[in-house]
Amino acid sequence: MKVRDKGKKFKFFDFVGLFIIISVIAFGGYFIYGLTESILKDDKSIISDQVWCANCQEYHDKATAEREQEKLVWCVNCQKYHAPGEDD
Predict the structure, then answer these.
(1) Contacts of 46 (CB under 8 A, 6+ apart)
(2) What is the mean pLDDT of residues 19-29?
(3) What does the pLDDT look like over 30-41, one tens digit per residue?
(4) Rounded mean pLDDT of the chain?
(5) Which residues contact 70 (CB under 8 A, 6 or more apart)?
(6) Of 46, 73, 41, whose CA–CA distance to 57 is shortest?
(7) Max CA-CA distance within the chain?
(8) CA distances (Å), 57 to each of 14, 39, 85, in order?
(9) Which of 85, 63, 82 shows the shortest CA–CA distance to 72?
(10) Is the separation of the CB atoms in 75 and 86 below 8 Å?
(11) Per residue in 70-82, is it b (16+ CB within 10 Å) or e — as a string?
(12) Which of 25, 44, 43 is nearest to 34 (CA)?
């Protein structure tokens, strides 16, 4: 008869559980790091004074965006220049 070793052997599910725990901890760390970066850094801040400009398809400060809205743009439908909100 064979004598069994009394030491604990690692099974497949032990490694799967360990992988899941490490993945959850890594995701939590990454999320917290991204959250603190967005709060502390001004250039990555989600709290901003910039607004989306529909004419340029990019973000501007409010004053620039208001000036852009007053500009005339080419309208594909009526084939004329007019302000972005005006339709004849």
Answers:
(1) 38
(2) 97
(3) 999 988 887 777
(4) 76
(5) 83
(6) 73
(7) 97
(8) 51, 25, 16
(9) 82
(10) no
(11) eeeeeeeeeeeee
(12) 44
* Phi and psi angles of residue 39, each rounded to the nearest 5 degrees, phi first: -85, -40
Residues 6+ apart with CB under 8 A from 71: 55, 83
Distance CA 34, CA 28 (A): 10
What is the three-state SS of the chain? CCCCCCCCCCCHHHHHHHHHHHHHHHHHHHHHHHHHHHHHCCCCCCCCCEEEECCCCEEEEHHHHHHHHHCCEEECCCCEEECCCCCC
